[in-house]
Write a structure and sequence with these properties.
elongated; alpha+beta; two-stranded parallel sheet
């Protein structure tokens, strides 16, 4: 089976490039017609908010303000409401977040109604306003620093592999990481799965798992190259043998990760029966698939091509 994978190395590389190209095309189109390259979740999605601040005592704040705000926003479908009781010079604050699809006129009407009811209740100092928040811009720092951290990890891996193994193995591992992360991003763009902070964590998981599996695979191949008994063996056969040896370990790791994600998703949907609850677990599965492909198929296939620059001891 692994000999076929190595012999079909061109197909594995072409398939990876095609999927990444499709993902980039879908993401680019959606950037102009669907609000973003990815389907951003709550952390990165743009939203409109109603904010109420007042310096009334906490007991009045807790009873009156919460009741007024809850009544006026009940028909607007707020996906997050936070109440923050102030201390000292910090005022009490209520922040209600809405998706940008919420009608602007209804939000303006709710702001006027809240302001009027609070003034009638003797809270003339209350400040009520609506704001439009660009979620993608707010989350740009997290995405930027996460990308820098992942790129640094991949660069460190490449340098380590060049010193620990061979230059061809280091270059192949770099290609494997680019393909794994590229396929992950492409699948997120194609499936339009909501992208939140968990996508950063699973991207890091993809990099780490690919790094570990590549290290095991290249260690096996390096030992086979050094073995005098394999002096006359064909290079592709040794690569295929290394892939075959590590196939069971790869299958166990990725199957266990997928089963764990499914089990936790079942408990999560029982605790909170909503479709959005499954979004992080869908992102997890979308990270496991490209990682498994990169380690089991692309890694031996790419090294079969790139490995010609590594000389073997005769």
């Amino acid at each position: 089976m692994m000999n076929k994978i190595v012999k079909l190395r061109h197909l594995a590389i072409i398939l990876s490039v095609v999927i990444i190209a499709i993902g980039m095309a879908v993401g680019t189109v959606c950037h102009f017609v669907a609000g973003g390259f990815f389907n951003y979740g709550d952390e990165f999605a743009s939203y409109t908010s109603i904010e109420v601040t007042t310096s009334v005592p906490e007991d009045i704040f807790g009873d009156t303000v919460r009741e007024v705000v809850s009544d006026e926003i009940s028909s607007l479908g707020a996906y997050e409401v936070s109440f923050s009781e102030g201390a000292g010079y910090v005022p009490n604050t209520v922040i209600c977040k809405f998706y940008t699809s919420a009608p602007a006129d209804e939000i303006a009407s709710a702001v006027s109604s809240i302001e009027a009811r609070l003034e009638a209740a003797g809270m003339e100092d209350a400040t009520v306003g609506s704001f439009v928040n660009e979620g993608v811009a707010d989350g740009r720092h997290q995405l930027m620093f996460a990308a820098i951290a992942l790129a640094s990890a991949v660069a460190f891996q490449t340098i380590y592999f060049a010193l620990r193994f061979r230059p061809g193995m280091a270059l192949s591992s770099l290609c494997n990481q680019l393909v794994a992360v590229g396929l992950f991003a492409s699948l997120l763009a194609i499936t339009r799965c909501p992208v939140g902070l968990e996508a950063i964590a699973f991207a890091a998981l993809t990099v780490v798992l690919t790094m570990i599996c590549n290290a095991i695979f290249f260690d096996k191949v390096k030992k086979s190259f050094k073995d005098e008994a394999n002096a006359k063996a064909d290079r592709l056969d040794l690569i295929a043998d290394g892939a075959r040896t590590t196939a069971k370990l790869n299958a166990f790791v990725f199957t266990a990760a997928a089963i764990t994600a499914v089990i936790v998703a079942i408990f999560a949907i029982i605790a909170s029966p909503a479709a959005i609850t499954l979004a992080p677990f869908a992102v997890c599965l979308l990270s496991i698939i490209p990682c498994a492909f990169a380690c089991a198929v692309f890694s031996p296939a790419s090294y079969a091509l790139i490995g010609v620059i590594d000389r073997r001891k005769k």
